[in-house]
Specification:
Number of helices: 18
Oligomer: single chain
Radius of gyration: 26 Å
Largest sheet: 7 strands, mixed
Distance between the termini: 33 Å
Strand order of the largest sheet: 9-8-7-6-10-11-12
Length: about 550
C-alpha cells in the first residue's frame, strides 16, 4: 500500500524535482558513471521533495495525495470490473482518464468588491468559490469567513466535499466558498452588506442556485448569514423560481430550515465514533474494550462542531477531560460538564478561568486520553507532533487536520484515525434533508404524523381486546400499558425524529461500507484510504455510466 502511495507522491512531485535538478545538479558527461551519478542525484532530489510535500503540503496537495493513495489501490479493480468490449489497454486508458479528471477543480471564482464601512471609509473584500465536480448536481459546500481563506483552501475543501458526499451517498458534487475577513472586526450591518453582495456576485456568475450550487454554513458563518443569502437570491435572480428557498441550507426554521441541522455535524461525529467503538475487532487492534463505557476524550476547538460533539459524547457515557481553544486550554481528569462550560463561555467569552477545571499550560493534544476530537483548523497534526499523541482514537471533526506524513506515523503507532470525509459528514447529510424539504415544500412528518399515532393506538386496542376475549375473567379488562420509551415511539415521528433517524442510518451504512473496503484491500486501521477508495469507486461509476461529454 505504501509503495503505491509513494509512487503516487512521486508523480505529484516529478515536475518540482525536475526544476530542482536543473538548479542544483552538476553537468556530467553521459558515461556510465555519469549516468549513474545523475540517476542517484535525481532519486535523492525526488526523495527530498517527496518528504517535504508529505511533511508540509499545502491543503489542496494534501487532499490530492490522499486521493492518489486510494486511486492507486482501486485502479486494477476498476479495470477488471469494467464490462465493455474494449481491449485491456483501452480499459486501463479509460479508467486512468476518469481517475485523472476527478482530481482538479472544475471551476474557481475569485472576487474583489468594495465595501463602504460604517465610519465612511472604503475597503476591498476578497472572496472565492470553488466547484470541484459536477458528476452530481447541485454542487454543495459551506461558506466560511476567515482571514485564512485562500484559493488553495477553498479548492481543497471543495474536493474534500466531493469525496465526502460520495462516502455517505449524498447526491451532490463538491464546492466550497470563503470570504477573507475576520467577522469579529465588522459590525452587523457591514456583515450583512458583505454577505448579500457576495450572493449577488455568485448569482451573476452562475455559482448559486437550487440546481446549480447550494452553500451552507461553515467557520464564521451560521443561520443568520444563510438567511441573508436565501433572501437576497429570492429577491434578485431567483424571484421567479418557486424553489428559490433551496438555494442554501443551514437556514433558520422560519426561513425553511430543518430541525437538527445546527447540531448535525456533532451528532454525526458521535455516530461515526460509535460505529467503530462498538466493533470488537477494531478495539482489540488498538488495545481498547468495545463500547463507550468510561472512555475519556479531549476536544480541540469549542465552536459549533466541538460543542455538540462534546455534548453527545458526554451523554453517551464518555468523560471529557480537556478542551483546547485558541486562547487557552482547560483540564480536569474527573470530567468537564458540557452545559456548564457552554454557559461559562457565553457569559465570559472564553473557557479560560472555568472554575471546574484547571488551566493547562502545555499542549493538551499530547495528554493521555482514549479519544481526541480535533474540531479546529487543518494540518494541526503533522510530522513534528504526531508521535507525541497518546490518544487511541482520533475523530477528525475538522477538515484536513492530519497531514500525510502524520497519517503514516499514527498508523505505525496503531492509532485509529476516523477520517474527516466520513465522520464530519453529518452536516452535509442533514443539509441534503433540508434541500429535499425545500424542494418538496412540506416538512417531514406533517402528512403522516397523526395517521401513524392513531394507527399505533388502534393496534394496541386490538391486542388488548383479543387478550380480554381469550383470558379475561367474565370479560374483565386486561390493560396494556406501554413503557415511556414505547409511548414516545407510537406517538409518531416528527421532523426532528426523522432527521435523527436518517442521519443515524446514513452514518451506520457508510461505516459498514468503509469496513468492507478495508477488509477487501487488507488496509487494517487505514480507514482514510478505505474511505477514499469507497468514494472513488462510486464517483467512477457515475462518470462511466453517464459517459463523458464532448471528449
Amino acid at each position: 500500500m505504501l509503495r503505491n502511495f509513494a509512487t503516487a507522491v512521486a508523480r505529484e512531485v516529478s515536475r518540482r524535482s525536475d526544476s530542482v535538478l536543473l538548479r542544483h545538479s552538476p553537468v556530467v558527461a553521459l558515461s556510465d558513471c555519469g549516468k549513474s551519478r545523475l540517476h542517484t542525484s535525481c532519486r535523492l532530489h525526488q526523495d527530498e521533495a517527496q518528504d517535504q510535500i508529505e511533511d508540509d503540503p499545502n491543503f489542496f496537495e494534501m487532499v490530492e495525495l490522499f486521493y492518489d493513495r486510494g486511486a492507486s489501490l482501486v485502479e486494477d479493480y476498476l479495470v477488471e470490473t469494467l464490462k465493455t468490449q474494449e481491449t485491456d489497454i483501452e480499459k486501463r486508458n479509460r479508467v486512468q482518464g476518469i481517475l485523472t479528471l476527478l482530481k482538479p477543480c472544475n471551476h474557481v471564482l475569485s472576487l474583489n468588491f468594495p465595501l463602504k464601512r460604517d465610519d465612511g471609509s472604503f475597503t476591498m473584500v476578497e472572496a472565492h468559490r470553488a466547484q470541484h465536480s459536477q458528476h452530481r448536481t447541485p454542487c454543495k459546500g459551506g461558506i466560511r469567513y476567515s482571514l485564512d481563506v485562500t484559493v488553495d483552501e477553498v479548492k481543497a475543501l471543495a474536493s474534500l466535499m466531493t469525496y465526502k458526499c460520495a462516502v455517505v451517498d449524498v447526491p451532490f458534487g463538491g464546492a466550497k466558498g470563503g470570504i477573507k475577513i475576520d467577522p469579529r472586526q465588522y459590525s452587523l450591518r457591514e456583515l450583512e452588506k458583505i454577505t448579500r453582495r457576495f450572493c449577488v456576485e455568485l448569482a451573476k456568475k452562475g455559482f448559486i442556485g437550487p440546481g446549480v450550487d447550494v452553500p451552507a454554513p461553515d467557520m464564521g458563518t451560521g443561520e443568520r448569514e444563510m438567511s441573508w443569502i436565501a433572501d437576497t437570491f429570492a429577491n434578485t435572480i431567483g424571484y421567479q423560481d418557486i424553489n428559490a428557498q433551496a438555494c442554501v441550507t443551514g437556514k433558520p426554521i422560519s426561513q425553511g430550515g430543518i430541525h437538527g441541522r445546527t447540531s448535525a455535524t456533532g451528532r454525526g461525529i458521535l455516530h461515526g465514533v460509535e460505529n467503530f467503538v462498538m466493533e470488537a475487532a477494531y478495539m482489540s487492534a488498538i488495545g481498547l474494550t468495545p463500547g463507550f463505557g468510561d472512555k475519556t476524550f479531549i476536544v480541540m476547538g469549542l465552536g459549533n462542531v466541538g460543542l455538540h460533539s462534546m455534548r453527545y459524547l458526554h451523554r453517551s457515557g464518555c468523560r471529557c477531560i480537556g478542551v483546547m481553544e485558541i486562547d487557552g486550554s482547560i483540564y480536569n481528569p474527573s470530567g468537564i460538564d458540557p452545559k456548564e462550560l457552554e454557559n461559562y463561555k457565553i457569559q465570559h467569552g472564553t473557557i479560560v478561568g472555568f472554575p471546574d477545571a484547571q488551566e493547562y499550560e502545555d499542549n493538551l493534544m499530547f495528554e493521555e486520553c482514549d479519544i481526541f476530537v480535533p474540531c479546529a483548523g487543518e494540518k494541526v497534526i503533522n510530522a513534528n507532533n504526531a508521535h507525541k499523541i497518546k490518544a487511541k482514537i482520533i475523530a477528525e471533526g475538522a477538515n484536513g487536520p492530519t497531514t500525510p506524513a502524520a497519517d503514516k506515523i499514527l498508523l505505525d503507532n496503531k492509532v485509529l484515525v476516523i477520517p474527516d470525509l466520513y465522520i464530519n459528514a453529518g452536516g452535509v447529510t442533514v443539509s441534503y434533508f433540508e434541500w429535499l424539504k425545500n424542494l418538496n415544500h412540506v416538512s417531514y412528518g406533517r402528512l403522516t404524523f397523526k395517521y401513524e399515532k392513531e394507527s399505533n393506538m388502534h393496534l394496541l386496542e386490538s391486542v388488548q381486546e383479543s387478550l380480554e376475549r381469550k383470558f379475561g375473567r367474565n370479560g374483565g379488562p386486561i390493560p396494556i400499558i406501554p413503557s415511556d420509551a414505547f409511548r414516545e415511539q407510537i406517538a409518531g415521528a416528527n421532523e426532528k425524529d426523522i432527521v435523527h433517524s436518517g442521519l443515524t442510518y446514513t452514518m451506520e451504512r457508510s461505516a459498514r461500507q468503509i469496513m468492507r473496503t478495508a477488509m477487501k484491500y487488507n488496509l487494517g486501521l487505514d480507514l482514510r484510504t478505505a474511505a477514499y477508495v469507497t468514494s472513488i469507486e462510486k464517483i467512477f461509476r457515475t462518470y462511466h455510466d453517464a459517459g463523458l461529454t464532448f471528449t
